[in-house]
Amino acid sequence: MYTLLHSFTDLLFPRKCPVCGNRLTEWNExxxxxxxxxxxxxxxxxxxxxxxxxxFYGLVPIERAASYFFYTPENPVHKILHELKYYGNTRMGIExxxxxxxxxxxxxxxxxxxxxxxxxxxxxxxxxxxxxxNQCSLLAKGISDVTGIPMGDESLVRTIDNPTQTHxxxxxxxxxxxxxxxxxxPQDIHKIQKKHILLVDDVSTTGATLSACAQTILKAIPDxxxxxxxxxxxxxx
Length: 237
Ligand SMILES: [Zn+2]
What we know:
Elements: H1 4-12, H2 33-38, H3 51-54, E1 65-71, H4 77-85, H5 90-105, E2 117-120, H6 125-131, H7 135-147, E3 156-158, H8 171-177, E4 182-184, H9 189-192, E5 196-204, H10 208-220, E6 225-234
Parallel strand pairs: 1-6, 2-5, 5-6
Antiparallel strand pairs: 3-4
Helix pairs in contact: 5-7
This protein binds zinc ion.
Zinc ion binds next to helix 2.
């Protein structure tokens, strides 16, 4: 709720939209409405067989996949990702998850139809210690808030602290880097069995991390279904 104290604080320390730098109004929590509407939307949630889904063909069977925005290092979406990953903007994570969920529910079909559990891609223990939060969990929480679908925050775990994918340029390096690093949390197997899982990641470049997560779940529990939602997807794939 917006209070008088908020208004006073805003007067002294005006909050700014991290994308365009304009001052945020009391109705915009983390990003201005202009930026939210003009960022490059993929609209993949309305397109079955979209290019993001195609990335997983022949690798791992998935039900559907969608991404909110296109990402290139030049477009403003990278500013949102930086806020999430490096500037500790946890509110931004939850808010983006909420916006993405509202957007994915709009249109002809509800992207979340039939989904039972939302599972964020887990962060390595080292990065969790450094950052203090998992940005994928924040997005998942925002999606859960809007859809009412429960979250399995610890259903998938990282067993090996692999180096970050960010600086790996070649596709082969990225695939090698995530091989065998995930596992299903034995305590959560009952939550996943016969369920339709939505894997949530912040940004997908080659699809290597998400494929590794999906393969891990399906290997441990073959009778479940997997779908994928990300905040951003790299244009050039
Ligand atoms: Zn803005």
